[in-house]
Structures are given as structure tokens and as C-alpha cells.
From TrEMBL:
Organism: Araneus ventricosus
MF (Gene Ontology): DNA binding
Domain MBD as annotated: residue spans: 62-133
Transmembrane segments: none
SUPFAM superfamilies: DNA-binding domain (SSF54171), DNA/RNA polymerases (SSF56672)
Descriptive protein name: Retrovirus-related Pol polyprotein from transposon TNT 1-94
Entries under Pfam families matching the protein: MBD, RVT_2, SH3_retrovirus
Length: 588
């Protein structure tokens, strides 16, 4: 027995002789026998685990990956059939027909057929995953056409058919029993080859009395902007969780990209329209530059930027646009059964939110939805950053009130999925920051909320919302603490830009706008008084940088301070005003 089925109350049974797995509820357990018969002959050795780097390569029973060819030598017909009855009703089966009376159900069958007929075989040309969007009002089978196959389209009868995604394997065993087995095998071989070429590991004798970490395969696939799978990917990762702190390691570090830098450099490159032409004034120079880079580094030329780290980019009417519409559609498919909310704002202004004081555990995907919305907010949707950040405080024990509020944020995102950021709006390299604070905004601990938005020219490249670490005793103190966070970010961005000497960027003093006159005066005044002597010395960083003339500190009216969107829930009119500042395509 392999365990339980995922979607039904039955067992999963593995038959070693045939190498097949079936699901059934008709199982009898013989409790008088422990373990399994070790003499049973397996059909093949597909189901062993990989324990070292060399296991996958040295397996004599593994079917080698066929050489890739440019085309096949016959016309293939791909047919998808939706099951109409039984427990698997709604499941879509995929078949290939090289001839009218020959039906092939898997890549192994296709491979054997090609070998028997002397036909070139390319596993990438055969897709047994039912990932088609089937039309309504059409019958039971559909034949699809790709670049490599010619086919006729028949009708479909199942009006209830839906998009079926490829299941990503959780481990090596699962990767060997799915229809896409050969694609995953090819991805694993690619990964092992890259590890060898880059000298990632070195085989050494096992030290005595030392803990040895295991490894496992992690699988995923890469999609284009239309949702079509472009590439299967596999990564061999160490099981570091088995290490013991203080014995196997003393410090950990996981490098991740800061998307602020991505936005910053894309805006710089888009703004430097004339200068970029020097590097690619014609196709020959472009190819020479790419060839030189490839000769020094192992890189891939991905062509025009269309999707990067979950964000989509488009060149439209001379403007370079950034958005996440595909990601929002994926969220719609995953969380589509969430009750609808027609609110025009992420959170209603003036709402009071408290901890869940009840013992009942709410069985809802609260943290999943928070995580998805956090990813969206950090990339392209600053208008929901405050709401998501504030509601994430209740991840451990959300109440029905918290759940209804995060559902409201989710449906606000669905209703405003057309919001985009125009990266071509910038006409200068000046950094401008807006800071704000909401004093004692958290009703539970009375701590304030800091927020800032930083523009490069007219494009928002950095923003933040966070609860302050200390309790501010006045609105001036809260604004001053928020100001210090913006100053740290401005100093860092200026250093990044100044370090890129090859760009020859002009040196322009940054501007920071604050809507609190008291905080501005305190920043410019070196004197202390009875009301300010308790402020932590670390916030005097603002005065130091201001005296060094690294930025100008100016006043802005609270009605025109865009950082207000990062510190509190706003009315619809105010939110729309600031969204027009941050986004394009904002509907009325």
C-alpha cells in the first residue's frame, strides 16, 4: 500500500510485478505478516530514491533521454477526451494518433512506435498533459494542433470542461509515474550537468561522527505570459533542516533579489533611450555584445523582457508597462470560491481591528491568501500594501472578521486588475520621497504606522509600510521616526546609483516631503527640549544626513502626500486620487 488517494476515500496500491499503481477501497490487511516480500521482482527500477549526485546518472535501468531532433517524420493527431462517467468523471485523457487505427497513451508508447517505424523521436513534441481550455457547447473530444503536428479540429460535447493544470511532483517517485516523466527526467539531467560544469560539489569520503545532510528534488515549470508551459525545471537541493545549529553551522544566509533594484534599473534604462542605442545601434553589434557575454558567462538570451519574477512587462504605444494580470487571474482560479465583496476600497476608513479572542480555529486559507496578496503588493500594487501588512498580524489565529476583511482586499484586487505602472513616465534621475505616519493607529498596542513612497522621476520605485518598533508619544515623534526610514532608503538608493559609474548618471540632490511642520523643524534643529529628549539616538541619523546636505527636506500638504496611502485606510475618493498618481489605467 502506497497511502491514500488525494481526492477520494480509497487506498493507493502498488503492484511490483506490473509497476502500476491503482486506487481501490477493496483492501484486506494481513496483520500476521510484517513488511513486504523482498524477493518480489520489480518490473523496473523507476521507484528507487536518489541518495547521491551520481545515483541518477549511474542507473543502468533508467531509460536514456532520446536525442532531440528538429521534427518528426509523420503527421500526429492529438486528441483530448473528457470522461463522462464514474469516479474519474471530468478527467481529460490525451492520446496521439500516428495512424487512424493506432492510439498511443504515453510517451513510452510513442517512443516504442517511433523506434519500430524508424521515426525521429523528440519528447518535447508530445504533450500528454490536458492543459487545454475547452470551449462550451462542444462535444466529447478535441484534437489540438502545435507547431510540429497537423491536425483537424473536431467538436467537443462537454459543456462543463475546464482548464486542467499539470500536477507538479512533490518528490522523485511522483516524477516517475506521471505522464510528463520524460520531461522531468530531462530537467533533472540538465540540472546534474550544470552542477558538474560549475563545480558545485566535490565528492569526498564521509567524515566520521558527522551529520550528513540528505538531498531531494524540487520540481516546477516555467510558463509564458499566456500560461503555456515553456520549460520543465528541476533543482537538487540539500536538506539543510537536518543540520544542528552550533554543530553543523553557526550562521545562515539566503540571498534574495530586492525588487526595488529591479524597478530602479528598468526605469533608468527606459529613461536612457538615446544612450541604450549606443550599445545596440544595429543587430550586428547586439549579437556581438551578447556573444561576448556568453563567452565569459553561462547565460541565456531570453529576448525581449516579457515576464520576470512573476511580473509582466509590455511595450505599448511607446510606453513600457509593468503589471501582474496573469498572477491575479491565477489567484482568481485558486481562491475563486471566496464570497464576493463589492467594496471599492481595500479596507474601510476608520475600521478598528483587534486580535481574535475566541478559541475556535478558523479552517480557511487565510495565510495562503495573505502570502499571495503580499507578493502582489511588493511587486506592482502599493495601494494594498497597508491593508495586507496590517492584516498579516493575525496569521496565527485569524477570526471570521479578519477573514472577511482579507476577502474584501482580494475582491478589490480582482475589481482593479487593470491597474498598471508606467515605467516610461520618468524624465529625470531625481529621487523624490514622500513620508507619512499614522499616530497610534494600532488599537491594540497604540503603536504608529510608518510609510513612504519614493519616485525616480515620476515612477514609484520604492515604498514601505511598517509598524513602528517603539511607542511614539506625539504625532511629531511618529512622523520623525517615519522620516528616518525614508532617509535610510534614499541614502541607499543614491549609493546604488552613484556606484554605477558606467551609466554616467547626473548627480541630483534628492528631495523628501513631509506633511508635519514640527518634524521638519526638529530635524533641522540641533537643540533638544523636554518633549524630545527621550527620542532614541538612532533616529538622529536624519539630522546627520540633513546637515551633510545629502537631501532637501520640504513640506507638503497632507492632502497631496501620496504616502498617506501606506499608513491608513482611505475613502474611495482619496484612494482614487493617489492611485491616479501611482498607476495608469485607473478606471473612474
Amino acid at each position: 500500500m502506497m497511502g491514500y488517494a488525494l481526492n477520494t476515500l480509497v487506498y493507493r496500491i502498488f503492484f511490483p510485478q506490473s509497476g502500476k499503481i491503482t486506487e481501490t477501497k477493496h483492501v484486506k490487511f494481513n496483520e500476521s505478516i510484517l513488511g513486504v516480500d523482498s524477493n518480489v521482482q520489480m518490473k523496473d527500477n523507476k521507484f528507487r530514491m536518489i541518495d547521491s549526485f551520481s545515483d541518477f546518472e549511474l542507473s543502468s535501468n533508467e531509460t536514456p533521454m532520446p536525442k532531440l531532433s528538429d521534427k518528426t517524420e509523420c503527421d500526429w493527431k492529438r486528441v483530448c477526451v473528457t470522461r463522462q462517467k464514474g469516479k474519474s468523471k471530468g478527467r481529460i485523457d490525451v492520446y496521439y494518433y500516428p495512424e487512424s487505427k493506432v492510439r498511443l497513451r504515453s510517451k513510452n508508447e510513442v517512443k516504442k512506435y517511433c523506434e519500430s517505424k524508424g521515426i525521429d523521436y523528440n519528447p518535447d513534441n508530445f504533450d500528454f498533459s490536458p492543459k487545454l481550455i475547452l470551449d462550451d457547447n462542444k462535444p466529447n473530444a478535441i484534437e489540438t494542433q502545435s507547431d510540429d503536428f497537423s491536425t483537424d479540429i473536431e467538436d467537443i460535447s462537454d459543456s462543463e470542461a475546464h482548464l486542467v493544470d499539470i500536477k507538479i511532483p512533490n518528490n522523485f517517485k511522483e516524477s516517475q509515474i506521471v505522464p510528463e516523466r520524460e520531461n522531468w527526467c530531462y530537467a533533472m539531467k540538465e540540472e546534474l550537468e550544470i552542477l558538474k560544469v560549475r563545480d558545485v560539489y566535490e565528492i569526498v569520503p564521509r567524515p566520521k561522527n558527522k551529520n550528513v545532510s540528505g538531498n531531494k528534488w524540487v520540481y516546477t515549470h516555467k510558463k509564458d505570459v499566456t500560461g503555456k508551459i515553456k520549460r520543465y525545471r528541476a533543482r537538487l537541493v540539500a536538506q539543510g533542516f537536518k543540520q544542528i545549529e552550533g554543530i553543523d553551522y553557526f550562521d545562515t544566509f539566503s540571498p534574495v533579489i530586492n525588487f526595488t533594484l529591479v524597478r530602479l534599473f528598468i526605469v533608468i534604462l527606459v529613461t536612457m533611450k538615446d544612450d541604450i542605442a549606443i550599445f545596440a545601434c544595429n543587430e550586428q553589434y547586439m549579437n556581438e555584445a551578447i556573444g561576448l557575454i556568453k563567452s565569459k558567462f553561462d547565460v541565456k538570451d531570453l529576448g525581449k523582457l516579457s515576464k520576470f519574477l512573476g511580473v509582466e512587462f509590455e511595450m505599448r504605444n511607446g510606453n513600457f508597462i509593468m503589471h501582474q494580470k496573469s498572477y491575479i487571474n491565477e489567484m482568481r482560479n485558486i481562491f475563486g470560491n471566496i464570497p464576493n465583496s463589492k467594496s471599492l476600497v481595500p479596507l474601510s476608513p476608520g475600521i478598528a481591528i483587534y486580535d481574535n479572542m475566541e478559541d475556535d480555529v478558523l479552517n480557511v486559507p487565510y495565510r495562503n491568501l495573505i502570502g499571495s496578496l503580499s507578493f502582489l503588493a511588493s511587486r506592482t500594487r502599493p495601494d494594498i500594501m497597508f491593508a495586507v501588512n496590517f492584516l498579516s498580524q493575525f496569521n496565527n489565529n485569524p477570526s471570521i472578521t479578519h477573514w472577511n476583511l482579507i476577502c474584501q482586499v482580494f475582491h478589490y484586487v480582482l475589481n482593479t486588475s487593470n491597474y498598471e505602472i508606467n515605467l516610461s513616465k520618468s524624465e529625470s534621475f531625481a529621487l523624490t520621497a514622500y513620508t507619512d505616519a499614522s499616530w497610534a493607529a494600532d488599537k491594540m498596542d497604540r503603536k504608529s504606522i510608518s510609510g513612504y513612497v519614493i519616485f525616480l522621476g515620476d515612477v514609484p520605485v520604492s515604498r514601505s509600510t511598517s509598524k513602528q518598533k517603539c511607542t511614539a508619544l506625539s504625532s511629531m515623534e511618529a512622523e520623525y521616526i517615519a522620516l528616518s526610514e525614508a532617509v535610510k532608503e534614499i541614502v541607499w538608493l543614491n549609493r546604488i546609483m552613484n556606484s554605477c559609474l558606467f551609466l554616467e548618471l547626473p548627480v541630483i540632490k534628492s528631495k523628501i516631503f513631509c506633511d508635519n511642520q514640527s518634524a521638519i523643524c526638529y530635524s533641522k534643529n540641533l537643540m533638544e527640549n523636554q518633549r524630545t529628549k527621550h527620542i532614541d539616538t538612532r533616529y538622529f541619523f536624519v539630522k546627520e544626513k540633513l546637515n551633510a546636505e545629502e537631501f532637501d527636506l520640504l513640506y507638503v500638504s497632507g492632502k497631496k502626500n501620496v504616502a498617506d496611502i501606506m499608513t491608513k485606510a482611505l475613502s474611495h475618493d482619496k484612494l482614487k486620487f493617489y492611485c491616479n498618481w501611482l498607476f495608469c489605467n485607473v478606471s473612474e
